[in-house]
């Protein structure tokens, strides 16, 4: 029944999509051929015109590069300033190109100071408002110097001194006579297009097509100009604006006065000139009616023959097709099972080749799956693959085991299961990374913390790439996850060690200053207090009891300070030797800082007892205090003021505290006799 229905469907489709279109094609073929031929000839006009335009661009670029390079020569600069002669250089440039009429150097007033033809002293005949008004490529001009008249254009580049000041102009005057390179670039016809012509038009609307009387000054009066092209030269023309601004539009085709034209712009970085290719409109509408009628008959006959022949073989085809459809349905129902095979009926037929190739493909898929499974089992890395079409996630066995993930878990279906193993911060970061990956289709790598089966939180490195289809739509994400917990913890340990003083386990100098800077930056309206502590007579302790006991005293002082800091929300550091620093940001009342200072002094004053109880050592300290913003908002100054206040205490009896006042800096500096 299914085979019969398919036969009916195929028969109807064949009639609709073979015979009926053939009739339609035959009916409209005559008109389409005419339009096709016309379009093809228009395309020829456009392509040839654009090719000629490219040649003009190249030629103009050559001259612009020439004047630009020449204007930077030392001889040219010396010539404009009167420090030397550039005659030989100018003569060499003119001699190198037969189209160059003259080479000129102008000073900043527009006076010709050097000429390849030797005529100097006059004012450049095309100068209006100064050399700054000169165009890189001029309009066509009548060059009447040196006793001759010819049509020419000039190419200009400014001359700069070593300070980039504009001191003059360098000009090459190039002929557009009949045998000039410019005329040769625009000469020639457009194949079989009648009365075709390529016109290069300057900024004044003069067409550069050389006749016996010079350039075509009458271009502006032609029907092409009046009826079509003229409108495109209007700056308000939407077509011209489109041509100027669009990077993918090189020309505009139109018609006027029985003529088909193609209009374009010379590269705007080179010149404001335009070009026009034109041909007789009758050339675009010639076609063979007989050929078109014959084509219609052939198309219709071919459609009938094809339909009849196809009906003969359709029955034989459907038998094999039915078997293939049945096998493919079985594979689909078995969710892509690779153990099902096509029954090959005839290996020499196209269907037999398709069946064999499909079986080979299934074998390759099976081997590929086994290969990936083996790699996953042998690797310490954890692999995963997220299939968008099936909305399924594949995970390697070691990944499932490590994180206690069930393959039948519904979270595997959406590809977002990993974020359930993360804390909220890492989960949000993971979602952002995945969304960015799907948007940009690039690979990415990142580090996250995941919760394992045992409940431990470990660091992992995740690298993933996005596989796309031919339309750049995501198909799947393939990734690898590596356990980097040991390396990460070691890195954190090393980073932590680098931040602390080894003996006291307080912040070292760099870490303390970095944290103090941060506190000052984010303090807002809060007061920041810096305390500078120095142990009194510490050298005496080292000399009498030894450095081992001295180190124990340092640790005793550090433990005492740490307790006071932890209780009151600050932090402390050791700058070296017997110097300690503290920072508090939550003590709004200055009296609180004073109480903290006295608490530290009093607790240290109780002294240090060695662990064996055989020795008691008196420990005293002097403390200097400075505040931000009262004293300064600069970190270095704040610590310096606290240090100065501490030395004030040293100078005035020790074992006390003092809050910095500006007068402290004016007093004689206290000379601490090596730790006393």
What order do the helices and strands come in, and which of them pair?
Layout: H1 2-71, H2 74-81, H3 87-95, E1 100-107, E2 112-115, E3 141-143, E4 150-160, E5 166-175, H4 181-186, E6 197-201, E7 207-211, E8 214-216, H5 223-232, H6 238-245, E9 252-256, E10 259-265, E11 274-280, H7 289-333, H8 350-378, E12 382-387, E13 392-395, H9 397-402, H10 424-440, E14 444-451, E15 457-468, E16 474-483, H11 485-497, H12 509-521, E17 528-536, H13 538-545, H14 547-568, E18 571-576, E19 579-584, H15 590-605, E20 608-609, E21 616-617, E22 620-628, H16 635-651, E23 657-659, H17 663-666
Parallel strand pairs: 22-23
Antiparallel strand pairs: 1-2, 1-5, 3-4, 4-5, 6-11, 7-8, 9-10, 10-11, 12-13, 12-16, 14-15, 15-16, 17-19, 17-22, 18-19, 20-21
Helix pairs in contact: 1-7, 13-14, 14-15
Description of the molecule:
With 676 residues, the chain is of the alpha+beta class. Among the domains are: 72-175, Beta-Lactamase; 338-374; 379-489, PAS domain (Beta-Lactamase, 2-Layer Sandwich), CATH 3.30.450.20; 499-666, 2-Layer Sandwich (Alpha-Beta Plaits), CATH 3.30.70. Helix content is 45%, strand content 21%. It has 17 helices and 23 strands. It has helices spanning 2-71, 74-81, 87-95, 181-186, 223-232, 238-245, 289-333, 350-378, 397-402, 424-440, 485-497, 509-521, 538-545, 547-568, 590-605, 635-651, 663-666; strands spanning 100-107, 112-115, 141-143, 150-160, 166-175, 197-201, 207-211, 214-216, 252-256, 259-265, 274-280, 382-387, 392-395, 444-451, 457-468, 474-483, 528-536, 571-576, 579-584, 608-609, 616-617, 620-628, 657-659. It has a 5-stranded antiparallel β-sheet with strand order 2-1-5-4-3. Strand 9 (252-256) and strand 10 form a beta hairpin. The protein is flat, with a radius of gyration of 45 Å. The termini are far apart. The model has no long low-confidence stretch (mean pLDDT 77).
């Amino acid at each position: 029944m299914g085979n019969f229905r398919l036969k009916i469907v195929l028969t109807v489709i064949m009639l609709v999509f073979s015979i009926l279109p053939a009739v339609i094609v035959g009916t409209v073929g005559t008109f389409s051929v005419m339009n096709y031929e016309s379009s093809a000839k228009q395309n020829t006009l456009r392509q040839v015109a654009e090719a000629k335009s490219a040649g003009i661009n190249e030629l103009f670029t050559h001259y612009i590069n020439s004047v630009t390079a020449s204007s930077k020569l030392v001889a040219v600069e010396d010539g404009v300033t009167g420090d030397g002669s550039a005659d030989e250089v100018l003569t060499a440039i003119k001699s190198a190109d037969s189209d160059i009429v003259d080479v000129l150097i102008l000073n900043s007033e527009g006076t010709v100071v050097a000429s390849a033809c030797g005529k100097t002293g006059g004012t450049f005949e095309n100068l209006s408002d100064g050399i700054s008004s000169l165009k890189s490529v001029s309009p066509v001009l009548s060059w009447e110097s040196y006793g001759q008249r010819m049509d020419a254009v000039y190419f200009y580049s400014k001359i700069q001194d070593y300070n980039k000041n504009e001191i003059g102009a360098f000009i090459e005057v190039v002929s557009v006579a009949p045998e000039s390179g410019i005329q040769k670039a625009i000469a020639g016809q457009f194949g079989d297009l009648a009365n075709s012509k390529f016109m290069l038009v300057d900024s004044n609307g003069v067409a550069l097509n050389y006749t016996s009387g010079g350039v075509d000054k009458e271009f502006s009066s032609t029907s092409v100009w009046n009826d079509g092209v003229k409108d495109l030269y209007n700056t308000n023309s939407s077509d011209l604006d489109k041509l100027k601004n669009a990077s993918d539009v090189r020309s505009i085709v139109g018609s006027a006065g029985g003529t088909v034209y193609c209009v374009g712009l010379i590269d705007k970085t080179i010149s404001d000139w335009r070009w026009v290719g034109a041909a007789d409109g009758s050339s675009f509408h010639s076609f063979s009616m007989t050929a078109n009628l014959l084509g219609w008959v052939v198309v219709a006959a071919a459609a009938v023959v094809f339909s009849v022949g196809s009906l003969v073989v359709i029955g034989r085809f459907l038998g094999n097709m039915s078997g293939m459809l049945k096998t493919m349905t079985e594979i689909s129902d078995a969710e892509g099972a690779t153990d099902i095979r096509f029954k090959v009926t005839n290996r020499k037929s196209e269907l037999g080749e398709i069946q064999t190739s499909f079986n080979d493909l299934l074998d390759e898929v099976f081997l590929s799956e086994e290969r990936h499974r083996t790699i996953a089992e042998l690797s310490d890395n954890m692999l995963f693959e997220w299939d968008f079409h099936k909305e399924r996630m594949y995970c390697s066995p070691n990944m499932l085991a490590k994180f206690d993930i069930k393959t039948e878990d519904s979270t595997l279906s959406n590809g977002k299961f990993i974020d359930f193993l993360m804390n909220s911060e890492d989960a949000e970061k993971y979602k952002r990374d995945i969304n960015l990956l799907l948007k940009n289709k690039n690979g990415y790598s990142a580090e996250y913390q995941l919760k394992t089966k045992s409940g431990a939180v470990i660091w992992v490195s995740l690298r993933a790439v996005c596989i796309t289809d031919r339309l750049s739509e995501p198909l799947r994400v393939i990734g690898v996850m590596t356990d980097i917990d040991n390396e990460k913890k070691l890195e954190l340990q090393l980073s932590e060690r680098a931040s602390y003083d080894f003996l006291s386990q307080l912040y070292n100098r760099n870490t303390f200053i970095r944290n103090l800077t941060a506190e000052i930056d984010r303090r807002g309206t809060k007061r920041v207090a810096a305390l500078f502590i120095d142990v009194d007579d510490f050298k005496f302790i080292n000399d009498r009891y030894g450095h081992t006991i001295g180190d124990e005293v340092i640790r005793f002082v550090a433990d005492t300070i740490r307790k006071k800091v932890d209780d009151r929300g600050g932090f402390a550091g050791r700058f070296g030797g017997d110097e300690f620093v503290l920072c508090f940001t939550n003590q709004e009342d200055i009296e609180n800082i004073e109480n903290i200072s006295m608490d530290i002094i009093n607790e240290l004053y109780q002294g240090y007892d060695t662990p064996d109880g055989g020795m008691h050592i008196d420990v005293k300290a002097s403390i200097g205090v400075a505040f931000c913003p009262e004293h300064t908002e600069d970190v270095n100054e704040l610590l310096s003021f606290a240090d100065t206040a501490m030395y004030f205490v040293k100078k005035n009896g020790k074992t006390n505290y003092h809050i910095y006042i500006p007068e402290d800096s004016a007093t004689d500096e206290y000379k601490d006799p090596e730790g006393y």
